[in-house]
Amino acid sequence: MDLPPFLLEFLQALAAGVMVGGAYALMCIGLGIIFGSMRVINFAQGDFLMLGMYVAFYLTTGYGILAFLGPYAGPIIAAFLAGPVVFAVGWLVHRFIVSRVTGLGAAASEGAGAYGQIIVTLGLSLILQNGGLIVLGSTPTGIRTPLSRSSWEIGPILLNQARVVSFLVAVALVVAVYLFLGRTRTGKGLRAAADNSTAAIYMGIDVDRAHRIAWSLGVGITAIAGGLLASSQSFQPYVGFDFVIVMYAGVVLGGLGSILGAFWGGLLIGIVQQMSTLVLPYQLQNTAIFVVFLLIIFLRPQGLFGQLSERT
Amino acid sequence: MKSAAARRRWAIVAVAVVVLIVSLVIRSAYYQLVLTQVLLWAVLSLAWNILSGYSGYFSFGHAAFWGLGAYTVTLGMINLDLTPWLGIPLAAIVGGLAGAVIGYPTFRLRGHYFALAMLAYPLAMLYVFQWLGYQELSLPMKRDAPLLYMQFADQRAYVVLALGLLVVALAVSLRVENSRFGMALLAIKQNEPAAEAAGIDTWRWKMRAIMLSGALAGMAGGLYAVVLLVVTPESVFGMLVSAQPLILALFGGVGSLWGPVIGAVVLVPLAEGLNGELGDVLPGIQGVVYGVAIILIILGAPEGVYWRLRDRFAKPRAAPLIAAEPVPAVTRSDARPTNRGDLLALRGIGISFGGLRALDNVDLVVREGSLHGVIGPNGAGKTTLFNVVNGFLAPDAGEIRFGGDQLTGLRPNQVCRRGIGRTFQVVRAFPRMTVLENVVVGAFVGAHDDRAAEQMARAALDRVGLADRAAALAGGLTTRELRLMELARALAPLPRLVLLDETFAGLGHDDLGGILDVIRRVREEGVTVLIIEHTMQAMVRLVDEFSVLDHGKLIAAGRPDEIVRDRRVIEAYLGRRWMDRVTDAVA
Q1: Is residue B292 part of a domain?
Q2: Using a CB-CB distance cutoff of 8 angstroms, which residues of chain B are in contact with residue A39?
Q3: pLDDT confidence of B97, banded at 50, 70, 90?
Q4: CB-closest option in B119, B247, B353 to A310
Q5: What's the confidence (pLDDT) of residue B185?
Q6: How many CB pairs under 8 A join A and B?
Q7: Shared-domain flag, residues B7 and B135
Q8: Closest of B409, B476, B414, B468 to residue B445, by C-alpha
Q9: Mean pLDDT score across all residues of chain B
Q10: Which of A110, A295, B195, B474 allows an S-S link to B187, with CB 3.0 to 4.6 Å?
Q11: Which chain B residue has its CA at the smallest distance from A289's CA?
Q12: Hey, are the CB atoms on A126 and B291 less than 8 Å from each other?
């Protein structure tokens, strides 16, 4: 099959975008759960993702705990295990730090009073990044598996196997999270607390606990996305920063508070990022994301799936 | 106010002298470099504070201005052989312009969205400058003319330059704080719709603030490049640069003159010192210290060091801002007798929210000097009607005329300027300002200078009988006092028409009588009053004319005695039982 070169490049970039977009979608859902339910801008979200990457890294390579699982299953199981580990870290961080500046009053006010939480997450981000630098060192590292070096060919298009696997796993997880939020009691409580915390309290929902679950779940899910990405790209302690804008762009694109929106938003951002290499130099890849991000904020702040509520 | 400003001017001089003495005492070039950095970061933090501290629009992107300033000076020197003496002023212009370019689209956003959008600008610039190939630029050495190119052998010269910049930043901040500029920004921070409705052109003040802020930040960034001699995109556009002014200001106290300076004096040497001592062993120690510092400060003293100290040591501000002077009677000179024709005329007004027709073909005429009531059940469109008149909402159909002017399409502050004041269903006060300051904000529209504004504000407080509470903080008022204060704020610029939105809501029976008297008096003084209300009984005794809204349509208009007998009104709104009671009250 002979395709014109530009079409081939286009399809190749599209495929790469969808593959990387799967992991982006997963991390966006993590952030979306936090932003949607707590209305907190979590600057440290990218750094929790970085934690997820390192947890997966040390589980597979560093101490080789999971070495017995082999080079194929090991990294994936490790990525999954990064979830609970970071969930626990998130739980503690929320219990002792974040919960003291969030909660009912903060969720209600979008104005000047709501900045304490942003500052706290900024502080967390600085500590995680720079603490990571001290503890983990600044040398870029990565999980190398046979998968990351080989690809499948679908017609003329090459698909990196590690990315395909992480895409499939991410999509499966997205479905699981979606079902959890929609079907389980805890999930419904989270959504109620997100929708109207005051009313949720009257309905007997422990909003503080709901927030803690949302926060921990959010950072845990994002950490799994990080763990999945760890086998297809190199990283260092500052890597979370590259993903903060990816995540916010995805979540805002999808519409704040919409889990489905976060999924599509993350996927689209992955596609935009990869497609931009067709027209822009490689260094400007992330600039394309900023441009998309700003365009959404200006043109359709409610996002693709969100609804704008007007109050005067 | 005068003496306080003078005291703070002297404090600025004192700080400058202390810094000069310190720079003479310390001999090590390294410590002088640290001192220079303290001063420059204090300038950036003050610049940030002018926008974000006063107006409440938090910027996570001040690195954009700082970085553009640094690159302006560096590129100017490399490519055009431009001396920093001119490059730094140029950096101010570039920073100010960048402020305008960034502010113009971004101020359409509020709250979190604004903060997030601001975050994106410097990061986008970072990648662009990397791509342009400006990875690491060094300022060329000019051994033949070091003075001309700001290349001093003695590090103390840079201390003096940075100090000069700090004094400028402090003086500018002080000037902002003590003028209607600062007052407008504070009002925006505390309640932007109320500020806009009180006649403050919020858009223009915000633009001014971000341009001024960008200019100061640009200058500081430019001097930073001169001092460090090397510029990289990460070091000037990076996240830590954007975070720094915010952290310093939060630590010291947001929205205060000295907060950013306190933050810089404490945190910058701490971080630099640790970095110098331990940087080799623990490379990220500076960031960790900042992170821990801001978390501790937010958990322990969220208002910042300055406000914490001030609350502890300063005497409570009980006295009025200015010694009370006899208040000259300020009323409208063109106050007219009643019944002089139509003042406000709405024709065919319609507006939809999604599928809901909130107002549908509404015609409404308010005669000059009348006291006109708008009634209707919940959701009838009463508040929407006010929002359309005062410019919060643009109607999809119809036109509004006021006097001879066309109001349709004007912004709220422009509507206010033409002589329409309003109050809100849920009182929109500026809670951290005094009652007098709240009303002064409203008076700015009608006053030539700040002094006149204060006189008009005092007169308005007199008119509503709240003069004795002038010095109280608005946050501590009762509902009755809040209603009166809001009324005074609307009356202060001497409007021809005031829109009162459910002024009686939440008031007990005793409070009601007093407010009714005030409203009657206002009307007798020549101000036309349009009032929305639920409390039928009070309204029947108060107004000359009724308009009745139901489901967005005007279903009746006329004198109270006609309205209460109107079958359509009774059916739509009052119900049969009301009719007997109300007719009794009228009789």
Answers
A1: no
A2: 112
A3: very high
A4: B353
A5: 92
A6: 132
A7: yes
A8: B414
A9: 85
A10: B195
A11: B124
A12: yes
What distance in Å separates residue B135's CA from the closest CA in chain A? 12
Confidence of residue A109 (pLDDT cuts 50, 70, 90): very low
Q: pLDDT tens-digit profile of B366-403?
A: 998 889 999 888 778 888 999 999 888 889 889 999 98
B381/B527 Cα distance (integer angstroms): 24
Q: Does the beta-carbon distance from B115 to A41 stay under 8 Å?
A: yes
Whether B355 and B236 map to the same domain: the answer is no
The DSSP 8-state label assigned to residue B147 in this structure reads: T
Say yes or no for a CB contact (<8 Å) between A245 and B119. yes
Percent of the residues in chain B that have a pLDDT greater than 90, as a whole number? 29
Contact A127 B287 (CB under 8 A): yes
B403-444: pLDDT as tens digits? 878 888 888 999 998 899 999 888 888 887 889 988 998 888
Q: Indicate yes or no: CB of A120 within 8 angstroms of CB of B294.
A: yes
Averaging pLDDT over each range in A46-50, B241-245, B417-421, which range is the top one? A46-50
B353/B233 same-domain check: no
Q: Are residues B82 and B210 in the same domain?
A: yes
Structural domain total, chain B: 2
Q: Closest partner residue to A138 among B283, B287, B392, by Cβ?
A: B283
Contacts B131 to A, Cβ<8 Å:
281, 283-284, 287
Residue B561 and residue B546: Cα distance in Å, rounded?
10
Cβ–Cβ of A116/B285 closer than 8 Å? no
Locate all alpha helices (DSSP H) within A104-258, ordered by sequence.
Answer: 104-108, 115-136, 146-149, 161-183, 185-195, 197-202, 207-229, 240-254
> Distance from B116 to chain A by nearest Cα, in Å?
8
- DSSP assignment of B475-507 equals GG--HHHHHHHHHHHHHTT--SEEEEESTTTT-
By Cβ distance, the residue of B193, B288, B294 closest to A119 is B294
- The answer to whether residues B354 and B232 belong to one domain is no
Q: How many CB atoms lie within 10 A of CB A184?
A: 11
Query: What three-state secondary structure class fits B230?
Result: strand
Q: Which of A101, A134, A290 sits opposite B284 (nearest CB)?
A: A134
Residue of A nearest to B279 (CA): A134
Q: At which of B175, B206, B240 does a domain end?
A: B240
Among chain B residues, CA nearest to A307: B354
Domain containing B348 — which CATH number?
A: 3.40.50.300
Phi and psi angles of residue B279, each rounded to the nearest 5 degrees, phi first: -55, -35
Please give, rounded to a whole number of angstroms, the shortest distance from the CA of A54 to a CA of chain B: 17
- Rounded to a whole number of angstroms, the distance from the CA of B75 to the nearest CA of chain A is 21
Burial track B181-190 (b if 16+ CB lie within 10 A, e otherwise):
bbbbbbbbbb
B434: which DSSP letter?
B
Residue A107 tokens, joined: 């969720």
Domains and CATH numbers, chain A: 5-108+116-299 (1.10.3470)
Asked whether residue B78 falls in the same domain as residue B226, the answer is yes
- pLDDT value of position A308: 47
What pTM did the predictor assign? 0.84
Report the sign of the C-alpha dihedral through residues B552, B556, B558, B560, in that order. negative
Asked if B123's CB is within 8 angstroms of A286's CB, the reply is: yes
pLDDT of residue B442: 87
Domain range enclosing B506: 342-419+495-586
Rounded to the nearest angstrom, the minimum Cα separation between B380 and chain A is: 15
Question: Are B346 and B236 part of one and the same domain?
Answer: no
Give, rounded to a whole angstrom, the gap between the first and last alpha carbons of chain A: 60
B371 in helix, strand or coil? strand
Is B266 domain-assigned?
no
Instruction: Determine the residue of chain A that is closest to B186 in CA distance.
Output: A112
pLDDT per residue as tens digits for the range B289-307: 888 888 888 887 777 788 7
Do the domain assignments include residue B306? Answer: no
- To the nearest whole angstrom, how far is the Cα of B156 from the nearest Cα of chain A? 32
In this predicted model, what pLDDT tens digit does every residue of A229-264 receive, in sequence order?
A: 888 888 988 888 888 888 888 888 887 767 888 899
Please check whether residue B148 lies inside any domain of the structure. yes
Same domain, B97 and B214: yes
Domain final residue, candidates B240, B268, B292? B240
Please tell me the predicted confidence (pLDDT) of residue B210.
96
Give the nearest partner residue to A131 out of B117, B239, B288, using CB atoms. Answer: B288
Question: CB distance A130–B284 less than 8 Å?
Answer: yes
